[in-house]
From TrEMBL:
Keywords: Membrane, Transmembrane, Transmembrane helix
Keyword Membrane (UniProt): yes
Biased composition (Basic and acidic residues): 1-11
Protein name in the entry: DUF4124 domain-containing protein
Organism taxonomic ancestry: Bacteria, Pseudomonadati, Pseudomonadota, Betaproteobacteria, Burkholderiales
Amino acid sequence: MGLMDRDYMHEKSRRQRPFSPPPERFKLGTLGMALVFVALLFFLYKAADWKLNQRPAPQPVAESMPQPARHPIPAPTSALPTQPAYPNSSNAAAGISQVTKCVVNGRTSYGDAACPQGSVSSQVTTRANHNLMAAVRPTAAGPAEATATAQHIVEVQASSISDAAAKKTECEWLDSQIKHGDSMARQPQGAQTQDWIREQRKQARDRQFRLRCR
């Protein structure tokens, strides 16, 4: 009697709850909802973090470095060597040349360079076409004396001197010019000065050859 009553009660309780889900299914549904909620929170966190990282990073401010002061380059103070004075092209075309006469301790020398200090200098003008020579006093003494001296030019006319005497005078002058150039070449000179001395010596030799100097 008791066993039949218990079976009846169990059967009755099952008929009263026909739609109740099994306990295992209810637990699985609750766990799935929790997982979905956690996944949603993780997705929201990642989205917020990504949005914050999209902000542009501040650009570093470049520090202005002081520029070094530029100092002007000083110009070279050493002067170039003085070039030898060459005859003017117009004078050369007319056959006129000038040489410097230097008198030092009674010795006379001729050349195109300036005379040494303490010597007496004068300018000698030669004219090959008329065989004339004019002695011109130097103009370095003073303005008044230089003007008066420059105006005093002594010219020897060709009619008063024979051709032989004029030829001899010029040949002697050319010979002294060559000797003076040789003495200058034996002294320590720069390469440019040595070239100029050789050129002057060659011109004097050519002139001697044309005059047939002995």
